[in-house]
Each structure stands twice: as C-alpha cells, then as structure tokens.
Amino acid sequence: MIRNVHEIPLLMRVLDDRVNYGVFLDDASSVLLLQHLIQRENFGDAARASTFLMLQEELDLNPMATTLSLLACHLAVRRGSAVEADEGAKPGLFWEYEEPPAEEEDEENVEYRKIKALESNALLNHPLWLARVEGVRNSLKGVHKGPGASRELSFMSIPYFDDHFDLRQPRHLVGKTLVEVCPVIPDLPVGDDSTKATLVASSKLLGFALWEKKDLLLKAVEDAKTTPVHPDIQQVLGQYIEGIEDDLKELKVDPSLPNPEEMCLSLHKEMEALHGEKVVQEIGELYDEFVARRKREVARELEATKLRSRMEKVKETKEELLDKER
C-alpha cells in the first residue's frame, strides 16, 4: 500500500483513524512512507505522516525518520501542497480538512450539563457549591430561590481541549511537529552544532507560528536573537501570525545561510551516507519478503479452502449415493 500511489489517500485515512483501525507507524514503515512521499513530491501527505509520529510521541524513534519528518514539514511549508495550490486555499492547508460541524444543544441538555458540572464540584461538600446546585435545581422547577437561581450566576463548565490529541487543523499539527522535533535535532549523529542550532531556532519559530502560539513564538524570537536564521523565516512567519512585524526585526538574519529546507536536506543526505541506504534497502527487502510470504499464505489458504470444498462435495455425493442404495 505504501508503494502504490493510488492507495495513499486510503492509507492516510487508516493511519489517521487510530481508534477504529489501530494502525501505527513503526520505525521501518515510517522511513519507507516518508521517503516514498518526498520522492514523489507529495509534501502535504509527507508532512501529515510526520504528524502521526508526533502524535505517537515517537519522533526520536529512528534518526532517519527524524530527519525525514523534519524535511517533510519544511518542504510542505516552503513549497506548499496540492491542496494549497487550489484557488482560494488558505496557507497551511497541507491536506484536505473540513471543520467539524458545531453541535447544537437544546436548552434542556445545557441545563442538565450545568447540574452535572455543579454536582462534580459539590463532591467536596462545600456549602457554597451545594447551595448553587440546589439553586439551579429550584430554578428549573420554577422555584426561584438560592444563589444559583439566577441564570447569570449559574456555573457552566468549560469543555476541555487537549492541545495534542484534539488538534485537527493541518497547520497546527505540522507546527507542533516542528516544535516537538526540536529537542531531538541536537542529538542527531550528523551535522555540525551551528547548523543544528540554526535549524532548531528556525523550526521552533516556524512551528509556534503554524501552531498559532503567539506568546511562545515571541519567547522563541527572544531566545533566537543570538542564533542566525535565514531571511525566509521572517517572511513565512508574517503569513501566519499578525502584529509581530516589529518583533521579527529583532531576529538575527543571515542571507548567506542555507534555508531550512536545504539544511534539512543536507542533514538527511549525511544520515543516508552514514547508514541510510543500507537501512532503506533492508526495509525494502523486509517488506518484499513480507509481501512474498503473504502471497504464499494466501495461496496456501486458498488451496486449503478449495480442498475443503472438494471434500464437502465428495461427502455430499457419498451421502446421496448411500440414500439411493437404501
């Protein structure tokens, strides 16, 4: 499925639906998939595949997967995706995505959730909370008394948003992936310290911008004042976060530096030279062996099924002959 370009959309859906399918990328499949997508210049799906590793918290699973994930995200941001190329598409829409429809709740359900939220706080047996629970109940019954009777004073719980598993927008996922991969970059066995420091600063700045974390972005700008970055970073950041033009002027810009995409590509080539070709070849051979074994198993099961079918027919024929003899 990884090597079949027509199966990639299906594969992306399966990998993105972990609850129903339970399929996760491992170190071998992640390298094979990312390599395949980048070679085909499918940068949107390559970045999406790297976000799966981020959600699995396994960006450090394999140095090859780390450099490929980093490269995929920067390529998607710099060169865009097929979805972004569509007229009217917003920047950062690296793959097809639809906002989930807002759920409409009737008034009765909202009031019920108010009571349940208050009851959860009333477990502490605090007199104030208990009084407010009673007040809301009386309000619903038409008895207007107690501190919770007023709609303005009634307590409403705020739905919890997990800033990891609840992320849905492509730009947020890619942004967090860039941020999460930063601690892994200094430990890579390739590249010099200055290149990796620049790549960390660039990835962190770009990641927080995509993730729309303005406060963290401004802190990253402050931290990156002594680390030179490519001018492209300034231009890209302005596309995603407004009102930070003056802050971006404080960045230490060096036009002579390679852009982040080129840095990632350089690191990945060094990784391939170190042990990449052997790893990719071994992974390819492993999957070829798996496919061949699967075909043999399918053929064996098919032959066994045919044999069982023939045996059933022989048994039926034998019973028919016995019935005729009687």
Any descriptors?
mainly alpha; 2 domains; mS27/PTCD2; Ribosomal_mS27
Provide a compact summary of the structure.
With 326 residues, the protein is mainly α. It has helices at 8-16, 18-21, 27-39, 43-55, 63-79, 107-122, 127-141, 170-181, 193-210, 214-223, 231-240, 245-248, 260-325.
The helical percent reads 55-70%
User: What is the count of distinct domains?
Assistant: 2
Helices and strands, in order, run as: HHHHHHHHHHHHH
Number of helices: 13
Low-confidence stretches: 85-89, 143-158
Overall strand count: 0
N→C terminal distance? 57 Å
The coarse silhouette is flat
Strand content: under 5%
Mean pLDDT figure: 80
- C-alpha-based Rg, rounded: 29 Å
Please summarize the sheet with the most strands: none
Briefly note the structural class of the backbone: mainly alpha
Pfam families: MRP-S27
Subcellular location: Mitochondrion
Main location: mitochondrion
GO cellular component, one term: mitochondrion
Task: Provide an overview of this structure.
The chain has 326 residues and is mainly alpha-helical. It folds into two domains: 5-98 and 176-262, no CATH class; 103-167, no CATH class. Helix content is 63%, strand content 0%. It is built from 13 helices and no strands. Helix 5 (63-79) crosses helix 13 (260-325). The longest helix is centred in the C-terminal third of the chain and has 66 residues, at 260-325. The chain is flat. Residues 85-89 and 143-158 have low confidence and may be disordered.
